[in-house]
Amino acid sequence: MKERPTRALIFGMVVFSIGTFLFLFSRYQYQKAASENYRPMEEIEQSDETFLLQRRKEEIMENSFSTSIELGEEYEKQSLLGIASDKYFDAKSIYPTAIKPRMALSRIYYQWAMVEPSYCWIAHKEVLFAMKYVNMGQYPDEYSELLVMKAGLNRQCGTNKNYAFLEQFENEMIEENK
């Protein structure tokens, strides 16, 4: 009777040892093959045509954005606000969440609305959209400037109740920021 449990135990140990050996050997072979075929991700990305095209596109967009901002600032200094607003609008179209062109465009439209009431609607709209993207926590100065512009537009042009779309948009924005 003592032989049977001993034989079973020895048989189990042999099977376990062979299984462990096969597992470790296969793992070693897998890692060896993986290390031989390894290419750094940077090398793969640099050789990938799609990646190259994507990087080129990003460079062009960044260059266009920077150029539009620079031209907008230059025209604004020369008091050519119409051309400056076009350049800022172009920059805003490239990167819609960028703060700088939205703030500049809001300032220009605000100045125009203070002089000519026909710009009230577009000034209201641009200030509200800028407020949507300008986070009070990240950009407190810009956000308070937008609040001042909004209050000035409400005094000069009336509230957004005069502009149904803007009132609805403002209400949605308030709900999002709660």
Question: How would you characterize this protein structure?
Answer:
The protein has 178 residues and is mainly α. The protein is built from eight helices and no strands. It starts with a helix and ends with a helix. The model has no long low-confidence stretch (mean pLDDT 84).
Features:
single chain; 178 residues; mainly alpha; Serine Threonine Protein Phosphatase 5, Tetratricopeptide repeat
How far apart are the termini? 79 Å
- Rg over CA atoms: 32 Å
Helicity, as a percent range: over 70%
The number of domains is 1
Low-confidence stretches: none
The CATH architecture category equals Alpha Horseshoe
CATH class annotation: Mainly Alpha
Strand content: under 5%
**Shape descriptor:** elongated
Looking at CATH, which topology would you report? Answer: Serine Threonine Protein Phosphatase 5, Tetratricopeptide repeat
Number of strands: 0
- Mean pLDDT, nearest integer? 84
Largest sheet: none
Q: SS-based structural class? A: mainly alpha
Output the number of helix runs: 8
State the assembly state of the protein chains. Answer: single chain
Compile the SSE list and pairings.
Elements: H1 3-36, H2 41-47, H3 49-77, H4 81-94, H5 99-115, H6 120-133, H7 140-157, H8 164-176
What is the gist of this entry?
With 178 residues, the protein is mainly alpha-helical.
